[in-house]
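Shipment paperwork, digital attachment
Item: protein structure file
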Amino acid sequence: MRAPLPHLWWAVLPILLAGCAGIQLPEPAANRDQAVAAYKERVDRLSKLVGWRLDGRVVAKGPGESGQARIRWSRSDREGRLAVRNPFGQTILEMRNGPRGLRLRDAQGGVFRGDRAHTVLRERLGWRVPVGRLADWALGLGRGEGVPADLDANGRPRHLAADGWTVTFSEYIQVDGLSLPQSMLVSRDEMQLRIRVQEWHLQWPDGSRPGQQA
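Attachment content:
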């Protein structure tokens, strides 16, 4: 039985997330070849990261329901972690995805692994989470589809699409000389997730920080 969105997000809240009232996309690239070259350069530089973390907020909107939550999302060469907190700072969901598969812990202390974790996650949300793609989308990258069709002049995706999901990037921010998404909309059918990144932390080999723009 599907648990309603308010159960996951703790309470039904109005959509208050700054920057979500409208989507203002970066201008499309006038020169496709230059945009593709810039995108490939971004991919190369991002591939050198040994880890990253973002802190932000997400607004979920489904049929007749909406809710808001805080997120802390991190990725290393071994695993990804996502902690979801309600607006009062209480953790309501923790997810880890690594060599041993998916592990999910809910607010009641229940722990679920593997296929069961995927099933529980889908039951709680009411839709299937694209776990394998989310980390790439967070960085403004496609996953195995080659160069995205819709780029701006700096090689940054304006839209991505895969398996029925659409990701729209409305704002980027410079972090350690890299352009990373700050506002994005992830949608499928009647489900929408609006993500606003408040802070990025990048981890480079040996603590080095590249300075050039990309």
